[in-house]
# Entry
Amino acid sequence: MNKKEYVIHQKPIPYMLVKNYFSEDDIEHMFRELKFLTPKMEFQDGTNLPTKDHKKNVQINLDKLYENRDTSNILNVMNKIYNDGELISNLEIASWFYEVWGYTNNDNTFVAYYENTDYYKTHRDIAVISMMYWLWEEPKSFTGGNLHLTDYDIEIPIERNQLMIMPSSTRHAVDPVKMIKQTDKLSGMGRYCIVRFLKLK
# Structure
């Protein structure tokens, strides 16, 4: 059984990292779907971004893709978060802000994929709470791709099988990714980030 490690940050902004979050079985189920989805991913303009070159990556929106969400391994695995009492208790330790978790009544999930020279400049998410989960094939085939909370000069080194939860209004950016050796486009050897936004209808 995987042993989770909770890392709580209260100041200057309340966010939480959970290392080694999902089981190896869960990871395997997600990778089966990711291998199918990656060739179908495309560049999509972000909401309220100043220019088209504000980001360079590809992604796919799972809620638009699946009429029945139960057919997606990724969505089923991500839904386990909602029943994780230990995670919710630790969020409440991080800040009173996360009391809003129980009032959110809508979510949206997409997969963002980064390969050579891909990046995402400083932006905010249009939601209440943002969750980011990082995954990649082993052995790791790229460098870079760390997350920055730009208003606070905080760098968050990404780790495989790590979940991050933060207020969506927190401005953040993704460092450029550099592949260690040349690969085909959409090879699946880059940086995956499964993103879930919690919202209020």
